[in-house]
Predict the 3D structure of the following.
Amino acid sequence: MEILYSEVFKEHKPLRYHPENPERLELAIVGLRESGLWRNVREPPEAEVEEILRVHSEEYVERIRKISKTGFSFVDPDTYVSPATWEAALKAFGAAVETARLALKRKDIYLALVRPPGHHAGRRGRAFNAPTLGFCIFNNSAGAALEIKDALGDAVVIDFDVHHGNGTQEIFWEDKNVLHIDIHEEGIYPGSGEIYDIGGKGAEGSKVNVPMPHYSKDDDYIFAWREMVIPILENIEPKVVVVSAGFDAFRNDGLATMELTERFYHFAGASLSKFSLAVVLEGGYSVGLRKGLPAFVSGYLSREAPIEEVHPSHEAVKVVEAAKKIYGKWWEIS
Ligand SMILES: [Zn+2]
């Protein structure tokens, strides 16, 4: 395991209380330390602006640079830019791309422990009909996915942040060579990620959305993961998987109603242990970072294949059955 982390990520900071703040990384580090996982930590490279321009429009990148150079400002009601945001965002993007490079070289788990997060950032900023950028600046996971696509011809992104990864989905909407599987809470910010959002023209089936009911628990998520995520991965057996890893579906993390615990994250990590992973931090605002993140990493490292009996709710079963019906057109999901 390797961790790409920089102190610069804590310099992107709000003036007053904001849920997306530097303490998030402290919490993640405490959690990793408690599990003996705070090791092999190194400074990531800063991304070149040209690399970012493969994902975002020049106008958007320039706008962020200018605001950051001018001082502190909100780009929308949710998302702030501070003087060090430019540097932090370049490094966050560089860290994500580096995890992809490492994951291509040698099978293991590589964690980009970064801020600002990225999965809501679309090509020109706000993605689809999202009201805001949702705390995100540059789409770090998209950078990792492109690096993998360059090397292998295609890429896979799995996003289990509680919010839909609308930015990533918009960036690759018409790219059939980037499979994006997104499991999230239905009906909350950013408002996209419906079960029928299957990808744009020529890329149908390459975008997979599983909107989970409010108050979903470990059993519901494990069920959805087993019925959808794992079978689709088995269809293609990718060498590397990019994980947009948000831990805000953890019980009482603060921004959503989901009630996941270490059990789901451990299971998810373990279930991906046959792939090389480029893990990019997205959301997670309190206990999810401290408990969920280490559970995911130690699940991967345990390489267990846990076969547990689960008892999903009626609502969760309904969603997953509907998803299987829709996506069964492109994927073998038995
Ligand atoms: Zn989130």
